[in-house]
Inverse folding.
């Protein structure tokens, strides 16, 4: 495109998921329910892991961070999407678009790093239970979480700064329900091949490397489980990992599918559908997965609820 035809873009228009008004109302109700479950479920986990002292362990320290990330990650895109379902003007400012892009990739890449740290925690807990507290001490846990946050921040900053420096032209129609990198780059008036190469290679490498490290941890975990003689003992040991493993496959599957492929019109349509999974559905499923498959969490929830009712009865 000739740069002489470049027009200054002050805002973008998000085309969303569909133009059918009746379907938009249905999606608004459905996604609002998922978002509410996300908020209530993850906030409950955050509160319970702080209140109940029996959950003051490395595993629940990381789970607190994961719940916080799920709330923030979903909140970057979902509230705007919900409001757009109810309005004709689906605009977002240029600065708002860049901020949305940055925080989406910042929080998303932080989450995949944190899941890798959680897999290492499970490996130490099962492989070396006697030295677990010594190895996964407070300093190590804080270091792993800090590295996850800082890596996610700079990974996102790289893509965001490169996208923000590009000139953009009319039409300013983003074929997505939020400002993701690929659909925004489609509107640039300059060569974006470097941006796309970095997105595929850097983001793809980050997702693939962390996934391989996570799977490696589980290879060693399975090795230790095979040494346990009783089937009941194996089930009990693996039950602490099943929730984490489920979340890993949900998040990594969509992330690698979305950001490790070349950008085509067909892939952008598929990316928009995949984005619903990891922005709306997965963050709402995570607290359900971690509570239904975790006996300690269910016991802690019962204790907290019972204490609340007891306090209310005493007040009355």
């Amino acid at each position: 495109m000739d740069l002489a035809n470049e027009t200054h873009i002050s805002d973008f228009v998000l085309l969303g998921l569909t133009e059918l008004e009746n379907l938009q109302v249905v999606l608004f109700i459905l996604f609002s329910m998922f978002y509410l479950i996300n908020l209530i479920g993850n906030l409950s986990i955050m509160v319970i892991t702080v209140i109940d002292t029996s959950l003051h362990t490395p595993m629940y320290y990381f789970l607190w961070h994961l719940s916080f990330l799920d709330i923030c990650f979903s909140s970057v895109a979902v509230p705007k999407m919900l409001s757009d379902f109810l309005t004709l003007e689906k605009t977002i400012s240029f600065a708002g678009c860049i901020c949305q892009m940055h925080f989406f990739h910042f929080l998303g890449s932080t989450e995949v790093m944190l899941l890798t740290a959680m897999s290492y925690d499970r490996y130490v807990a099962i492989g070396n239970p006697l030295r677990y507290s010594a190895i996964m001490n407070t300093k190590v846990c804080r270091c792993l979480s800090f590295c996850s946050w800082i890596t996610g921040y700079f990974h996102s900053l790289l893509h965001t700064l490169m996208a923000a420096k590009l000139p953009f032209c009319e039409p300013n129609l983003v074929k997505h329900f939020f400002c993701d990198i690929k659909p925004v780059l489609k509107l640039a008036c300059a060569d974006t091949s470097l941006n796309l190469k970095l997105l595929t290679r850097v983001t793809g490498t980050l997702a693939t490397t962390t996934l391989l490290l996570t799977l490696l941890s589980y290879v060693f975990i399975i090795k230790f489980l095979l040494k346990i003689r009783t089937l009941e003992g194996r089930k009990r040991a693996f039950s602490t990992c099943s929730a984490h493993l489920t979340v890993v496959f949900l998040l990594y599957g969509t992330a690698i599918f979305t950001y490790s492929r070349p950008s085509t019109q067909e892939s952008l349509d598929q990316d928009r559908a995949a984005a619903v999974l990891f922005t709306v559905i997965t963050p709402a499923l995570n607290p359900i997965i971690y509570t239904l498959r975790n006996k300690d969490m269910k016991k802690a929830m019962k204790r907290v609820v019972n204490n609340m009712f007891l306090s209310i009865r005493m007040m009355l």
About this structure: The domain at 3-315 is CATH 1.20.1070.10 (Rhopdopsin 7-helix transmembrane proteins).
